[in-house]
Amino acid sequence: MAVPLTVVDDSKISRKMVIRALPPGWDVEITQAENGEEALAAYRAGKADVMFLDLTMPVMDGYEVLEQLQKESLNTFVVVISADIQPEAQERVKKLGAMAFIKKPVKTENIVAVLEEYGLL
Predict the structure, then answer these.
(1) Could you tell me if 31 and 2 are in contact, meaning their C-beta atoms sit under 8 angstroms apart?
(2) Could you say which of 24, 32, 33, 114 would form a disulfide bridge with 100 (CB–CB 3.0 to 4.6 Å)?
(3) Residue 103: its pLDDT value, please?
(4) Domains in the chain, ordered, with CATH?
């Protein structure tokens, strides 16, 4: 059965890069979201067992998404994908419940490593 996956980034190009970097043969049903509000709507619609989340977006940023997921006790496997690689940003997203942090530009081997570490692949 396909894993419901939502890719969240305000940049269409970045979303496409993440989708292209997904492991070949991984059975996923992909939903795309341009901002945090769309990401939460996708989650609530059952389309985000796994979420690849950018931090810097209009409307609602990645930090706000993580805070809302935590506040509502929503259960999804969040991997933050961001160009902001400052240790403070990485520490903050992990405290907010993100399982992993991958720096942009994303590479298939980085996604595979995270998914294998948590038994999702």
Answers:
(1) no
(2) 114
(3) 92
(4) 3-117 (3.40.50.2300)
The count of C-alpha atoms lying within 13 angstroms of the C-alpha of 64, restricted to the half-sphere facing its C-beta, is 13
Q: Contact, 31 vs 41, CB < 8 A?
A: no
Interacting residues of 93 by C-beta distance below 8 A, sequence separation 6+: 55, 62, 63, 66, 80, 101
Tell me the average confidence (pLDDT) per consecutive run of 10 residues in the chain, 121 residues long.
Answer: 95 96 95 97 96 94 95 91 86 94 94 94 86
Residue type, 69: L
From residue 63, alpha-carbon distances to 27, 79, 85 in Å are 28, 12, 14
Verdict on whether the full-model pTM lies above 0.85: yes
What's residue 73's pLDDT? 84
Dist. CA 79–CA 37, nearest whole Å: 17
Q: How far from 91 is each of 19, 58, 99, 101, CA to CA, in Å?
A: 25, 22, 11, 9
